[in-house]
Specification:
Blueprint lengths: L1 H18 L7 H6 L5 H13 L9 H40 L5 E5 L2 E2 L7 E7 L5 E8 L5 E6 L6 E7 L4 H6 L3 E8 L4 E4 L1 E11 L9 E4 L3 E4 L8
Antiparallel strand pairs: 1-9, 2-7, 3-6, 3-9, 4-5, 4-7, 7-8, 9-10, 10-11
């Protein structure tokens, strides 16, 4: 009986060897794995075929279904690996793209601005409805001293751009922090409206796992997600 068992085991091992199945895993390798791999599946499948009832063999459909199921699982695992690699590549691409913004200005919600490399201040504000009058004022962010104001006249609903292009040289050279205030009359008298201004990008970085979005360090505004930026100068 032992000779038969030995012959059967040898025949089974020969099949495993032809299929390239590793049956000599150490105890540590088996203990470190919490799931069946391709070798384990093929080993079980081969043993199942060898030990099936010859009078009631496995149907071809059952065999194919098991193979298809394992192929599906293997395919999903491969997709997960590829997605992880793609995510890492995308993270690097996000950093590279964000780095190209260094030295440029991005549009951020807020009323603090500084003269750009051309000695100008630019921004936008959004009107919920048409206004009969609009005004933009620029003042020193520290002292509150009024530096400049401009009437923009009637404006329609939506985004309205504004700029101060003839900033005095003394203000440009000092890079003083300037506060921008917007007022508009939409039928209830002059009311304040929050502006968005262009601010300089100082650095770009990314922290955490591969899914983390690149962030920008924007002058006077701190860390801002690169995904929230939609306008660049």
């Amino acid at each position: 009986m032992s000779n038969v068992d030995s012959a059967g085991a040898a025949a089974q091992q020969a099949i495993f060897d032809k299929l390239g199945i590793n049956t000599n895993k150490t105890a540590e390798q088996r203990a470190s794995s919490d799931k069946l791999g391709q070798d384990d599946f093929l080993q079980l499948m081969t043993a199942q075929l060898q030990n099936q009832d010859p009078f009631a063999p496995m149907e071809n459909g059952d065999f194919i279904a098991q193979m298809a199921q394992f192929s599906t699982v293997s395919g999903i695992e491969e997709i997960n690996k590829n997605l992880s690699a793609l995510s890492a590549d995308m993270r690097q691409a996000r950093i590279a793209t964000a780095s190209t913004l260094l030295g440029h200005s991005v549009l951020v919600p807020g009323g603090l601005a500084r003269p750009d490399s051309n000695g100008e201040i630019h921004g936008v504000f959004e009107l919920p409805q048409a206004a009969s009058a609009t005004r933009v004022s620029y003042s020193d962010a520290v002292t509150g001293e009024l530096l400049h104001n401009e009437d923009l006249g009637p404006q329609g609903t939506g985004l309205v751009g504004f700029s101060w292009t003839d900033i005095p040289a003394a203000l440009r050279d000092a890079q003083r922090k300037i506060k921008v205030d917007i007022e508009a009359n939409t039928g209830k008298g002059m009311e304040s409206i929050g502006p968005s201004v262009y601010a300089k990008v100082l650095s770009a970085s990314s922290f955490g796992d591969e899914s983390t979005t690149a962030t920008l360090d924007v002058q006077d505004y701190g860390t801002i997600s690169a995904n929230s930026i939609d306008r660049i100068r």
